Each structure stands twice: as C-alpha cells, then as structure tokens.
Amino acid sequence: MGYELLDDTVVIRSGNMHATWRTLSPLLHQGGAAVTRRVLGISPRPGRTAGFENVPDFGAVIRTPDLAHGTLVNAASLKVLGARGEPNPASSYRFEYITGDSQGRAITATGAVLFSAQPWTRGPRPVIAMAPSTQGVAQHCDPSHTCAIGLNFFYRRPFDAIVAYELPVILWFLAHGMDVVFIDYPRDPSAGIQYYCDSIAAAKSLFDAVLASWHLGLSPEAPLGLWGFSQGGGATGWAAQLHDYAPELHPRAAVVGAPPVDLFSVLKTVDGGLLTGVIAYAIAGLGASAPELFNEIMPVLNSRGKSDVLSNITTCAGGSLLRSRYSTTSTWTNRGEPLADILDDLPRVVAEFEKQKLGQIAPTIPVLLWGSRNDDVLPIEPIRELRDQWSAKGASLTWHESQVPRVPGRTGLNHFGPYFKNLEKYSGWLMDHLV
C-alpha cells in the first residue's frame, strides 16, 4: 500500500471549540438579521443580476488578450456574512482578475480574498486557496456573491434559492487565523456560461486568483494550502498535478475531497436523483468550452432537454432541485436513452472527459484524498482508483474513506454530510502541513 491512512482517532485540537463559536455565532446572528430585514422590507432583496448592495459588480466577462494571467484588474470591499465584526472579523474584497478559458485564452474572472483579524503567532500567516463546491452556474450563484447574502429565496418564476453552504467552511479557516482566497470559476465571455466540468481551467484560475491577491496584501511568503470538495475537489486535484503553471507559487499541501474523477460515472449516479439538474450544468459547460462539443451535443437533446438545460443554468442549485428533482435525462434525449449512455458514444465528449480525468500525473505535494463509501453524487470507486494511480506514481498520499451510514432517497446528503462531519479532521490535516 503506497499511501497512508488518515487516523480516525478523535482528537480535540486546542482552539477548535472557540473556532466553532467564532464561526457559527456571527454567521447565525448576521445571517438571521439579514434574512429578517429582507422579509420585513427593511433591506432590498437580492436580484438575479449583479449589483446587489453588498456585492461589488465588475461587469460581464471579457477577453483580455494583452493581459497576463494573474493580473489584478479591479477590487472593492466585500461585506461577508459572519465576518463583519467580532468575534470573527475579516477584511474582505471581491476582485476581478485575469485567468484563462478552456483554450487558455485570457479572460476576466472574479473571486474573493478574506484577511483574518485573528492573532497568528506561529510564523507567517497561512493562506487557504479554496475551490468551492457547486452552488449553481448562474452568476448570482457565484460564491463571492452569495457569501454576502447567505440565504435568499426567489418567489417569482423561475423559483430559485441562494444557499451559501461553503460559507461555514470559509469562516472556519478565518476563525483559526488563516487568510482565504476563493474563486467563482471561469466563464465563457460570449454566453456567460461557466466552464463546468473543466477542472483544468478551474485549477489554473485558482492559482491566478492567488497571484492577483498578492496585489491586495496577501503575502507571497505565506504558506499556501489548497482546499476543494466536489467540483472544487476536481480543481484542487488538478492544481496539485499542475507542476509548471504558476512557478511563483509553492503550495505545501492539498485536500482533494470527493473529486469528479470519472465524469461518465458521475452523470450516471446523479441521473434520476434529487440533483439531476447538475447534469444540465455539465452539458452547458461542455458546449461553452468548444464549438465542436456544442455541435456534437446539441442534436442529442429534444425540446424538453434543451428547455431543462436552459432553465437549470439560469438558477442556483436550489432552483435546480425544484426544476429537475428526480427526473431522468432519458426524457431529455431524442433517443429516449440516458444522457450518459449517449455521450459515451460521442468521440469529442469522450476525449474531453478523458482529458479532464485525474490520475495521469502524480502530485508533487502532500495530498489528502478522501471520498465517501455511500456517496450518492460522486461514486467512491473512481476515487479509489485515483488513490491507487497516484500512489503507484509515488505521490505523498493520505487516504480517508468516510463510513457515514447511507441516508436513503438519493438526496445528496450522502455527498455533503461527510464533508461537514469531517471538516475538523480534514482541515486539521491541512493546517498541520502549513505550520
């Protein structure tokens, strides 16, 4: 066995109880107050477009052929829920920077950087570069937008909901005294569609965001750790494999949580479950990444399929649950077969999925790879195969397989539950590599 097992012994770390209070207390207080003000009409409700009062707007994505990746373009103060004052204050900024599209061409993208005000006495203050999990691919679902909103429901059609479920994780790292950079993921400038499924572009975007954050006060000497789960796990997995993309950066370790290793198996697993709508994200993201993929995929879809894809990509994950819950993609296709089976016959799609597959390159930094035995979104077997591939290539690998009992109903709880249950364990491993 060429990997270590993460110790499952329960360890109570010094400061974790206080960090939990600093994370949850202001989040519940500030988040509850924000929702109450909106319900009572004291504060305006967020819209589906940019420009909400607490979120700076930098306009649409554009191509920038004359600017280098990692360039800071714009920045403004961001009011992050749970970090607006004691007991977990942070100086926060939403910023626009240069990264690359699926073909590597320079485009603008957005992200956020949060500077913790907690004391840090153990050398340089570490930085967590975070690739968030899927919250939806519409722009009003971007994490640097939703972190200032927390929770919001849209009662007019199309029904939708903003749920910033990565916010507790961001605040958790801040409560420990670490700075955090996170991304919104790159988008196609023509259609504004996120390059969903493109973990390579996401990994490069994460590195570019860190470089851009240097101009906002992030220290180039700060110990850098990578953190990602689900969609973000694919991004951090590729970031750990990209040895030469940003030679100025020297990440010390990466947590790669439940990554989408085999995209065909992911599509088959979620099809017919509560999270069927994420398949629409994948279809739209593939079509946006290259005209050849768009032309290969679109003839497969019938009118209902096209309508459902369009509906899902204009809402957040909450809206997708309402629109496509427990539907099957066989109703989306002209052949009446599930999309995964049809896409498996399309050569350009197969080539793209193979290109995105983790495991072909060994990470050169220590990696904690984890998955969940009963995951009903990201199946465990391809993640086990990735474990074996990386360890066979000599990677410094730690493995953990969550044994959380299965919750029936294909609700996604078997996917998200272990993430939050083991947050202390997984973040502790990363912190140990940064101090």
Automatic annotation (TrEMBL):
GO terms for molecular function: triacylglycerol lipase activity. It comes from the Bacteria. Pfam families: LIP. One of its GO terms (biological process) is lipid catabolic process. PANTHER family: LIPASE 5 (PTHR34853:SF1), PTHR34853. This is Triacylglycerol lipase.
